Amino acid sequence: MINLYNPQNFSSLFSILITAFLLGIVHGFTPDEHTWPITFSYSIGSYSMKGGFKTGLLFSLAFTFQRAVASELSYYALGKILTKPDVVPIIYIFVGIVMSFAGAYVIGLGKNFELFEGLEKTLLKFLKIKTLKSQTKHINEKLHPVHIPIYMVLLHGFIAGWGTGAFAIIVYTILAPKMPNGYTGFLPGLLFGLGTMATQIIIGMFAGRFMERLKIPKKGIEYIARRTSGLTLFWGGLAFVLAAALEIAFPKLIEAGFITPLKVHNLHNLGVGFFLVIFILLFILTTSFIKSLKYVKNNGSEFL
C-alpha cells in the first residue's frame, strides 16, 4: 500500500511516479494557500463552467511546469535550498503582489471598492493610485470590471508553485532524488503537478458552474463574478504580503500551528497557510460576493 503521508519505500520507478501523482491529487483537494484562493478567485471571475475549466487548466499548467523544473533541480541536490523555511515569506510576497495587481487590474483600482472604505482611501492616497479609465467602462457610473489576461493566470501559477510545504518537501527531498538519472529528475514534479491540475480543474469548473446557476441576468452574473474575483485577489494579495511581513518579523510564526489527528498533509498541521486560506475564502471572497449580489439585485435594471 502506498503511504502518502510519509512515503519512504518504493518497489519501482512506477511506484515513485504514482505516489507523486496521488500526492498532487490530495494537494489539489486540500486547503492550500498557494492554489485554492487563486483558483477560486480566477474561476469565479470567469463566470462559467467552461471558463472555470480554462482557468484551472492554465493556472495548474504553469504550476506543473514550475514543479517539474524544481524537481529537476532537486535531483541535483538543490532540494534543501528550495524547501528552506525562510523561503516561504519571500514566495508569499511575490504571490501577494501578483494577486493584488491582478485584482487591481480587474476591479479598476481607485474607484470601484466597497470593502474597508477608510483603509482603501488611505491606501490609495498613500500610493497615489489613479483609475485607468481606458481599462474600464461604466454601468450607470459604476465601473465594470475587465477580463483577467491569460498571461496573468500563467504567471501566477508559476510563482505560486515555488511555495513550499509538506508536499513540496516530499517531492523535492524524497521522490526527485530517487530518479535514476538527470533525464528523469523532472518526472516527480511533473506527475505531482498533473495530479494537482486534475483537482484544480474540477475546483475551477465547480466555481464557474456555481456562477452560472445564479438566477439573475447574464450581465449581472458577469458583474458579480469579476467584482468578486477582483476584490478577492486584491485584498487576498495584501493578506499574503502581511502574513509574509509577520513571518519575517517573527520567524517562529512559520512553525506555529495546531495538530489534528488527520494524517493528511494540509489538514494535519494547521499553520499560517491554512488560516490564510480560510480568511481569504470565507471572509474576503464571501463578503465581496454578497455585496456584489446585493448591488445587482437592488439595481437589476442596469444589467438587463
Task: Describe, in short, the structure shown.
Helix content is 66%, strand content 3%. It is mainly alpha-helical and 304 residues long.
Report on the architecture of this protein.
With 304 residues, the protein is mainly alpha-helical. It has one domain (13-299). Helices cover 66% and strands 3% of the residues. It has 10 helices and 4 strands, in the order H-H-H-H-H-E-E-H-H-H-H-E-E-H. A two-stranded antiparallel sheet has the order 1-2. The protein is globular and about 65 Å long.
N to C succession of SSEs: HHHHHEEHHHHEEH
Total domain modules: 1
**Main sheet characteristics:** 2 strands, antiparallel
How large is the count of helical segments?
10
User: What does the radius of gyration come to?
Assistant: 20 Å
Helix content: 55-70%
Low-confidence stretches: 110-116, 129-145
Report the mean per-residue pLDDT as an integer.
Answer: 82
| SS-derived structural category | mainly alpha
Overall strand count:
4
List the helices and strands and how they pair.
Blueprint: H1 13-29, H2 36-46, H3 49-82, H4 87-107, H5 117-127, E1 137-139, E2 142-144, H6 150-160, H7 166-175, H8 187-212, H9 218-249, E3 258-259, E4 269-270, H10 272-298
Antiparallel strand pairs: 1-2, 3-4
Helix pairs in contact: 1-8, 2-3, 2-8, 2-9, 2-10, 3-6, 3-7, 3-8, 4-6, 4-9, 9-10
